Fold each of these.
Amino acid sequence: MSDTKQPVWFIADATTGLAAALAEAVLASGHHAVLAARLPSQLHALVARHPEQALALALDVTDTAAVDMAIAAAERRFGRIDVLATSAAQRYPGAIEEGEEGAMRALFDENVFGPINLARRVLPAMRARRAGHVVMLTCASVQAPAFEGFGHAARSALEALAEALFYEVEPLGIGVTLVDPGSGDDAGATAPRAAGIADYDGLAGRAARASAAVPVDAARAAQAIMQAVAAGRGPLRLVLGRAALQRAYDRLRVLKVGFDAWADLAASADVPAPGRAVHPPPGHGGRPRRGVRSRA
C-alpha cells in the first residue's frame, strides 16, 4: 500500500475521450491514479511515465466480479479512492423503432448499471471517511436528438440516478458531479446501427446535421473537472464549453415554453377550494395559448 497525501483517482475507460485527458491531467498534477480499461495495455506508456503514481487495471464495468477486483486492487496499492471518475458515452444510433432489444440492454448495462455499480462499490469507504467525490461524464444536458434516442436515454437515466445520489450522500461529505462535455467527442464506442427502416433514412441524415456539436478542448476540460473537484463537493452539474452551455440553456427555454403554454390547463386540475368550483380555462380547449408553439 502506498502512503500518500495526494488525492487518489480511479478513472474508468481511461483510454478514450475526456477520461483519457483527465488521466493525463491528474498524473501531471502529481496526483495518484488508478487507470482502468478493457485493454490496459493501451495505458502502459502513460503508466511508464508515472510509475509511482499510476496503476493500470483491466476492467469491464458490466462484470460485477471484475469491478470488485479492480476496486480491491486500487485500495491495496493506494489505500483508498478519493475520486471516482466514470462515464456514459457509448452511442447506439437509430430510430426508436429500429432498436434491437439485445443491443438496447447492452447499452444500458454499459452506460447506466456499470457506472452506478462502480459508484456503489466505492461509496462504503467514502462514507466511512466522510469524504470523496464521484464524477460522471455524460452528455445529458442537451435535448434528445432524433435518431440518438437510445444513447440519450441511457445517459439521462444515469443523470437521474446521479442526481438522487447527490442528495443522498451530500450530508455525508461526499460530492457527486455530472460533467457534460457537450461535444460528443467523449464517446468511447458506437454500437452498429440496427437494420434500418427506409422511411427514416432521409430524416436521420437531417437530424445528424442539425445536432452536430462543437468540440471542446479535452485538456482544458480535464483541468476544469479537477478544479470543480478541488473546490470541495463541487457542482451537481458542470457543462463544459460555450456551445454545450448554450444548448443546455436552449433546453431549459424549450421546457419553459411548454410549461407556460399549458399552464392554465395544468392549474385546472387542482382540487377545488371549499365552496369554489374550478372550471376549464375559457377558450382553451386543450390547446396551447395562441401564438405559443411548444414541443414540450
Amino acid sequence: MILPIVAYGDPVLRKKCEDIDAGYPGLETLLSDMWETMYQASGVGLAAPQIGKAIRVFLVDTSPFAEDDVLPAAERELLKSFKKVFINARIESETGEKWAFNEGCLSIPDVREDVQRMDTITMTYMDEDFKEHTETFDGLLARVIQHEYDHIEGILFTDHLSSLKKRLLKSRLGNISKGRIQVDYRMRFPDAKRAR
C-alpha cells in the first residue's frame, strides 16, 4: 500500500525515534508498504518518520545512482545492487574528509541544497530478520545512509545548512508545511490538515 509521505513541519520528523524488537506488530507489511511508497515517489531512501512512525527503521535502494557516468565503475556497480533495511541503527564512527553533495528529501519536495558530510561511516544495525550487522560504508552510499539515519535522529538535511541558507528557504519550507506545493506522490501536510 502506498502511504502518504509526511511533509516538512510535522512534529514526527523532529522526534528521536525508538528502537523496536522482532515482535513489532505488522513489521513485514510496514516494510513492504515503505518500499512501495519510496519507489512510487522515485526515492532512494525512506525512513519510518517520513510515513508518520517514530521508530528506528529506514530502507535504502541506491540503484538509480548506478546510471551516473560521473561515478567510478566500481562504485556504480556497488550502488546498482545495494538494497537494505536498517533497524535500530547506530552510527559508531564517521571518518574521512567532509565533502559536499546536492541533497533532496521526499518530505521537503523541490528543495535541493549542497550538504557537507563525512566520507566514511561505520554502523551497527539489524536487518529485517533481526540479524545484527556492523559494516563500514563510504562515498555516495554512506551519504544516502547518513541522510536516512538523520531522520531517525530527528534531523533533516536542511539542519546542516548555514543560517543564511535557512533564512533564504524559510518561506519555501513554510509553503511545503501548508501544502502549497505540487507533488506527484501522496503527502500529508501538517498545516493543511489533509493528505493528497
